[in-house]
Amino acid sequence: MKIEDHLRNIKESVEVIKESVQKNIQERQRTIGFSASIAAAEMLEVYLHKNNLINPGSMIKHELFNSIKKTKEKLNFNFPNKEKIISIIYDIESKRNLLCYGKPQPVETIKSVIESFNNLKAIFEEMGVNFN
Fold it and tell me: How big is the CA angle at 108 (ends 104 and 110), to the nearest 5 degrees?
């Protein structure tokens, strides 16, 4: 997928998360779970592609972040904030299925995913990736 396509998808996910916050996060937990998970993986993929750290045809799927060990094996090269980025995406991914397929979750759980997502976005923006 082209970087422009990833950026379009990320922008859509960011907008959907914002709309979900405005509506009621408890009523939109599934939407938040799906959107945060996929956009987090796409943000990393955009960064890695822009910096030629992975092949143009390589894909980063959200499932990779179910295990920090597997993530580090797959991403066996260094880049700025690597540990922090992996940790944040793992945190989002670890709550994804609860939000998407589980019973209604406490507001704190949903807020923590949104906060993690916003922190991740800020890190990538500080690293020079513009998602607007």
Answer: 55
Instruction: Pull the structure tokens for residue 116.
Output: 């993690």
- Positions of E strands within 1-132: none
Which of 68, 110, 109, 108 has its CA nearest to residue 85? 68
pTM above 0.90, yes or no: yes
The predicted-structure confidence for 88-123, as pLDDT tens digits, reads as follows: 999 999 999 999 999 999 999 999 999 999 999 999
CA dihedral 47, 45, 41, 43 (to 10 degrees): 30
Sign of the four-CA dihedral 132, 118, 38, 45? positive
Q: Which helix (H) or strand (E) holds 127?
A: none
Residues 6+ positions from 78 with CB-CB distance below 8 Å: none
pLDDT of 49-91, one tens digit each? 999 999 888 899 999 999 999 999 999 999 999 999 999 999 9
